[in-house]
Amino acid sequence: MQDGKVLLRGSRPSLKEMIEQFERQIISAALVASGGNQRQAAIALGLLPSTLQEKLKRLHLRSPRSAQSARVPASAGAYSGGDAFPPPSTPYTEEQ
Questions:
Q1: Least crowded by CB within 10 Å, which of 5, 21, 28, 59?
Q2: Is residue 52 within 8 Å of 42, Cβ to Cβ?
Q3: Residue 48 is part of a domain; what is its CATH number?
Q4: pLDDT per residue as tens digits for the range 55-82
Q5: What distance in Å separates the CA atoms of residue 20 and residue 67, rounded to the nearest whole number?
Q6: By C-alpha distance, which of 28, 90, 14 is closest to 59?
């Protein structure tokens, strides 16, 4: 309810959809930072590798190593910082 009006579900994403999008961004960033190594990404995220694999399947994500075009040119804004993993704006690869 906002200003006395009920927001219709179609007007914005559900909480579940927003959480899934956030998970996609964080997992994608960790995979990019680990060079596609799922074990290293899982450790960086504080997850068991099997839990990360379950999330990848549920969120329809593939690690950069399994994607057809794993390399992103530096000119395309690839992350090169020193943080544990890139910022959430890093693109992820959705399975089709």
A1: 5
A2: yes
A3: 1.10.10
A4: 999 999 887 665 544 444 444 444 444 4
A5: 20
A6: 28
